[in-house]
Prior knowledge:
Elements: H1 3-36, H2 40-56, H3 58-68, H4 70-94, H5 96-110, H6 113-124, H7 130-158, H8 162-182, H9 195-207, H10 216-220, H11 223-252, H12 258-288, H13 293-314, H14 321-335, H15 345-349, H16 354-364, H17 367-383, H18 387-407, H19 417-439
Amino acid sequence: MGRRHGVVALCFLAWFVAYTDRVNISVAAVSMQEQLGWSQSQKGLVLSSFFVGYMLFMIAGGWFARRYGGHLVLGLAVLGWTAFTLLTPLAATTSLGVLVVARIGMGLGEAALYPATIELYTRWVPVTERARAVARMLSGIPLGTVGGLLATGWIVGRYPWSAAFYSFGVLGVAWLTLWFTQTRNDPADDPRVGAQERALLAPVAEDAADPGAAPIGRLLRHRAVWAMFVAHFASNWTLYVLLSWLPSYFREVQHISVGGAGLMSALPWLAMFAATNGAGAISDRMIRRGGSLTFTRKLMQGIGLLGPAAFLLALRDVHSPTVALVLLCGATATLAFAWSGFAPNSLDLAPKHASVLTGMSNTFATIPGIVGVAVTGWLVDVTHTYTAAFLLTAAVSVVCALVYAVLFDARPVVAHPREGARQLAADQASDLRDRTDTSAPP
């Protein structure tokens, strides 16, 4: 097995650890709220504060990854958010304000995860393997969510809620040991990379050569970039609301125990894991068979936004835990298709500046983590139901799906000459097929 596969595997594990640390408080907060006397709005503030730090450092994380290498930046990011995970129980028992600061600090650490991983992929992953590598990376989201929800539900049901944060902190320390002893930033610096793999990665190293400063102004003037931002924003609105509030929904609306709420909340993310890989395979197959890259991205994104909207609208008046679970599995499974829509867009539009564009996009897409999660808590407090929150989430999805369908175009904004030539040839072939199909007799 090539060394590059080990790097991809550890990147997947970093995402897994990140999401166990991110969602464990969603389950633990049920017990924390009862012990510490929080209102729903205060709980929403705690859950959303993570995203303040996450948004503030996202663009800087992309710049640091491009400047100092994804390997170092990713390692320091995991070190940072692991430290704040371990400090969470002390912060929570000190005061609500100190806990909010700790959650913001944890967000600062996790902000570099996405751009640092993308930067590493520009060095370690050949173009022909990037779709699979991105799919594996993103698989860490649902699996980490499942692991975090199940383990936290089990731990909180048997031990003080603080044990959950200590347990996941140890997991981060174990990952750090593997990362800094087993991987390097560049294949050329790793003596365990064989000659055959080194030759395979040589063109990747050429593409990863420093292209100079990212043309931020040029990127921001292109409508496809804003279409990517909008799609990412809407996808994250649904994702973050579900990540933060599913355990509370099952506990408060469906009257499931704390441990049972963690278990019920985990099953939709298993559905998402399966759908993530299935959607990626479908998307790649469509493109390999000559399908338009732009059309494929729009189709995947349309399913990824309109599908969850339909399932959440159907969920409004459901009082059966089983029916609610089925609908939520449908919502997360269809949401997974969005990761074959907007997620590869930074590589589509600006392959040599993908880490910076990813940081920009994820900054914009972190707003739902602050606004959407907090507004959900406020709406539940005011209406004593989740109906208004689900309606708002569905509305955001529908509007943004329409914007992406109208504005997105997969042709590169800033491309490496070789990538630009490939895309130009693909576009010309697609245009020729379209003209041929249009002129053919019925």
